[in-house]
Amino acid sequence: MKNRPLFLLGLFAAVLVSWAGFVLGSHGQLGTLTPFFDEADGQSHPARLPGLAARGQAVYADLGCAACHTQQVRRPGFGSDQARGWGERQSVARDYIFHAQPQLGASRLGPDLMNLAARKPQAPSADDLHRLLYTGSAAHPAFPFLYETRGIVGESSRHAVRLTGAAAPKAGSEVVATERAQTLVAYLLNVNSGFEYPEARPLPAKSPASPEAKK
Amino acid sequence: MEASPADPAARWPLTLLAGSALVWLVLSSLLALVTAIQLHTPSFLADCSALTHGRAQALRETAFLYGWAGNAGVGLGLWILGRLGGHPLRALNWAVVGTVFWNLGLLAGMVGIATGSMTGFAGLQLPRAVQPVLVAAYCGMALPGVLAWAGRKREGTYAAQWYAVAALFLLPWFWTATQAVLLWSPLRGVVQTVAASWHAQSLVSLWLMPLALAAAYYVIPKQTGRLLPGYESAPLSFWTLIVVGGWNFGRHLIGGPVPAWIPTMAVVAQCLLLFHFLVIALNFRPVLAGGSLTLQYLRFGLVAYLLTGLLETLTSFRGVAVHTQFTLLVPAMEQLTLQGALSMFLFAGLVYQLPRVLGRDWTLPTFVSGHGSLYMLGVVVSVLSLGWAGLAQDALLNHSQTPFAEILAQLKTPLLLHTAGQFALLAGNLLLLVAFLRSAAASCCREAGASVLRPASSAS
């Protein structure tokens, strides 16, 4: 510690090694991933997010949805991700290559939001999501600031939220999803990891007695 | 009370740092109370767009890390480097300007988060525009410390100096590197997540924890009057933390869409870090005897720090992580690290530093010891209740298909307890802020009085 420049150089090098190893290392490994072209359906996967959905990712990020929701399915058998119907396979890096800012999340106070549009038995519709976002529920806060209530002039808006019961607006007015709400819902319905990439196929389950399973 | 001749010159810059730290601390505990209430009552303040749960969490985290721990840690680091360097601190104007810009930048960043400019990377939610300003401001704040290190009187150095100078020197470097790959020329896909988690871990391991450990290393021998046992291992322990401290972020990414070697490296790093924790336990052993309030803070901090090390090592294994991942056990451990270990070391430093910097004892010592009791109680209650909630959540979330509304309903009791813990933390922090303000005001009045009232007093 007596040699001053050497000490500072050591500090610098320690962090350089860590940063280069982890950040540049994983960039080297995953930075060049390309979409996978499937000859069977003549399309490449994953598809880019549609424009509306791509903008919705920014809304998801700035509202901090990731504080309670993840967007990553772990492999079958690791946790209950598959049993809960969140996805048939684990999420892999290729699923996210067109996400401007992947929102993996680290907390599951709410359900995972990958593959929301492919939930079984019943996938939520855009209307369901708007209703949840506008009114909230016992476990989900409401986001009324993403909606505006206004009088119906002429025809009712095609972005009006269909509400019943106590949440329904007064006669002659309607609750309309703002652009932010529309993009957010479009995003939620477009985040998916449906396609079976070669690297995403889970290892076939083997009985513990078989010799291959020991490898 | 021993004072150093170098202290008076640094009085107001260091008081400014400590004062801003305490204001941010109270703000962050207020926000923590809000987020704690939102956990069991999701509708609380939900219709206020600035305080919707995701944003309130980001605001709380930012205020705590960059506001409270950053300001307090830098203040202590500068003071320690100045005292051990043997000369009065130089270039303090830079520190004052840096502190002002750091706090204004943070304030702008908080407003940005509340109004929708949050970046969405955990630990790095500050809006893009303020991040370079903060790095520049930090360089100003750190300058006197690095100068004191470079121009020190003695050749030999102390552990407190290594930790402090490492923290002052490293933050601008790794923060700039992270900004480059996340904000200015973003990497693709999940590599961003890797970079963001690396940064969030480095913030604690390479910046805040070294500052807190510097304070502890400085205060413990002064308070116990004993040499630190096992001190000859301290350099190796220091380098272990600096070299592998940032490698263990992969424990949060187990099972995720990242290269599998990243979580594996976390296990390796955690096992290597056990050496660091062992040496800290040896070195800090004298505090276990207890005594003054400073030593009580340090004792609590030491126990929390060692527990953190053990729990993080355990949960970096995949078989354990499958139970803990994504549950409230993660925030419980984070609270143990940040409120239990980090804050306690910083409190010990501040409670020891401020009377010496202000040149007078605490005006309201009962408030300070009240803070100690309330804060320790609050940390114990909130960590245990979150841990309880996390264990219950693991059974419901990972091993059954209980609907989420029902999970939250079943967690209500521990989450209400957690809110009570956060309330104690807020109350304690308010006491400390009041005690600080009274002491600073008294010191200020005495200084003003000394110059204004001199003729009168000489007449009498």
What can you see in these coordinates?
The complex is a heterodimer of chains A (215) and B (460). Chain A is α+β, with helices and mostly antiparallel strands. Chain A has one domain: Cytochrome Bc1 Complex, Chain D, domain 2 (Orthogonal Bundle). Chain A has 4 helices and 4 strands; from the N terminus they run H-E-E-H-H-E-E-H. Chain A has a two-stranded antiparallel ribbon with strand order 1-2. In chain A, strands 3-4 form a two-stranded antiparallel sheet. In chain A, a hairpin with a 4-residue loop joins strand 1 (36-38) and strand 2. Chain A starts with a helix and ends in a 27-residue tail after the last helix. Chain B is mainly alpha-helical and 460 residues long. Chain B has a single domain (10-444), classed as Cytochrome C Oxidase, Chain A (Up-down Bundle), CATH 1.20.210. In chain B, 77% of the residues lie in helices and 0% in strands. Chain B has 15 helices and no strands. In chain B, helix 12 (365-398) crosses helix 13 (404-410) and helix 12 (365-398) packs antiparallel against helix 14. The two termini of chain B are 29 Å apart.
Q: Strand tally of chain A, please? A: 4
Give the domain tally of chain B.
Answer: 1
What's the count of strands of chain B?
0
> Span from first to last CA of chain B?
29 Å
Give, in order, the helices and strands of chain A: HEEHHEEH
